[in-house]
Amino acid sequence: MKVVIDTDPGIDDALAILLATASPELDLLGLTTVFGNCAIDVATRNALVLLDIVRRPDVPVARGAADPLASPYLGPVPQVHGVDGLGDGGPSPSPTREPVAQSAAEFLCRTAAAHPGELTILAIGPLTNLALALRLRPDLDTLVERVVVMGGNALVPGNATPAAEANMRSDPEAADVVFGARWPVTMVGLDVTHRVSLRGADVDRLMSAPTEPGRLLARALPLYRSFLERTNGLDGIYLHDPTALACLLDPAAFAVSRWPVRVETQGISRGKTWPSLGDTDDATPAPWQGRPEIGVCVDVDASRVVGLLLDRLSTAVGAADAGEGGG
Ligand code: RIB
Ligand code: CA
C-alpha cells in the first residue's frame, strides 16, 4: 500500500510515523508537513529528525502550509506536545538533511499522478495541504485511491473545544473541502480514538528500550502522559494518530457508517464535524445535499487495535515483549 502521511509532529504523530516505518504493508512514499501541534518549521524539523531516528533517509519530507486557508494559525499547544513539538524532554539530534524543494501540495499532486489510483493519503493533522493540493490540481481527488483522516467527532464531544476536535478546529474550511471532494474518505475521529489508549506500564516499557527510538519516546512521552493524566485522569496515553494508521492496517477492527459530513466554520462550534444521519424531518437538509457520503468510524475493537499498535511499537523501538495490550 503506497502511502503519504500528512502530519504535524507532534507526539502522537511521531508514534504513527514510527509505526508506519515498522509496518511492512506500507510503502511510505513521503511525509508532508503542516502547522498544527507546532509551527510549520518545527513540524518539518521533527519529521526529518524522526526519519533519521528510524534510519529512513529514503523517505522525502515536503514542507507544507504554515497557516490555515482562511484564518490565522491558532498557535502551538506546548502544554500537550511541548515547545519543540516532541515533549520538551531534552535536545533531539539535528536533522541530517533538508526537505525537498516541492511544497507539500505539489508533492501530493506529483505523487498521486505518478501512482494513479494507488496512493493513500493518511492525514493526521489539519487538512490544509490536502485542500491546497485540490486547488493546485482539481482532478487530484480522482487520482488518489483513498484518504484516511485522523480528525473530527461525529457523535461525541470535541477535545480542542466542547464542540470540535483539534485537527478540524485548526482549519475547518480545509476540512469541509476535503470531505466534499470525490475521493473516498474515512474519518477516524474521537468517536473511536478516545477508546484507544496505551496503559502507563506499556508506555514505561517502550520508553525503557535502549535504542534511539526508545530514547526519543523517553524524551517525548512524559509531558503528553502528564497532560492526559491531569486533564482526563488517564493512566497512559491516547493514540489518536496511530489509531488512524491502524485503520489502514486492520480495517476490520473498525465499524464504519456512511454519511455526508459538513464542517462548521462559524461561531462557537467552529470545527465541529456534522454528519447528516438521515433521521431528520428532511432526510438530507440543504447544506448536506449533493455532498458525498464518507466513512465515519463509529466503533472500534479497542483491545485488538491496542494489541496491534503495541506489538508494532515494540518492534519499532526494539522493546522487550511489552505484555498484553490495554483497552
Ligand atoms: O485531536 C487529536 C489530533 O490533534 C492528533 O492528530 C494530534 O496530533 C493533534 O494534531
Ligand atoms: Ca497530529
CATH-wise, what's the superfamily?
A: Ribonucleoside hydrolase-like
Query: What is the CATH fold-level name?
Result: Inosine-uridine Nucleoside N-ribohydrolase, Chain A
Mean pLDDT, to the nearest integer, reads 95
Structural class: alpha/beta
Fraction of residues in helices? Answer: 25-40%
Second-tier CATH architecture: Alpha-Beta Complex
Tally of structural domains: 1
- Using the CA coordinates, give the radius of gyration: 18 Å
The count of strands amounts to 11
How would you summarize the topology of this molecule?
Layout: E1 2-7, H1 11-21, E2 27-33, H2 40-53, E3 61-62, H3 78-81, H4 104-114, E4 119-123, H5 128-136, H6 140-143, E5 144-150, H7 166-170, H8 172-179, E6 185-188, H9 190-193, E7 197-199, H10 200-207, H11 212-232, E8 236-238, H12 240-249, E9 254-263, E10 273-275, E11 293-300, H13 302-317
Parallel strand pairs: 1-2, 1-4, 2-3, 4-5, 5-6, 6-11
Antiparallel strand pairs: 7-8, 9-10, 9-11
Helix pairs in contact: 1-12, 1-13, 4-5, 5-8, 10-11
The structure holds alpha-D-ribofuranose and calcium ion.
Alpha-D-ribofuranose (RIB) is lined by residues 8, 10, 12-13, 36-37, 124-125, 150, 159, 165-167, 240-241.
Verbal overview:
There is one protein chain. The chain contains 13 helices and eleven strands. It is α/β, with parallel strands linked by helices and 327 residues long. It has a single domain, classed as Inosine-uridine Nucleoside N-ribohydrolase, Chain A, CATH 3.90.245.10. Strands 3-2-1-4-5-6-11-9-10 form a nine-stranded mixed beta sheet, sandwiched between helices. A two-stranded antiparallel sheet has the order 7-8. Helix 1 links the parallel strand 1 and strand 2. The longest helix is centred in the last third of the chain and has 21 residues. The two termini are 27 Å apart. Calcium ion binds next to helix 1.
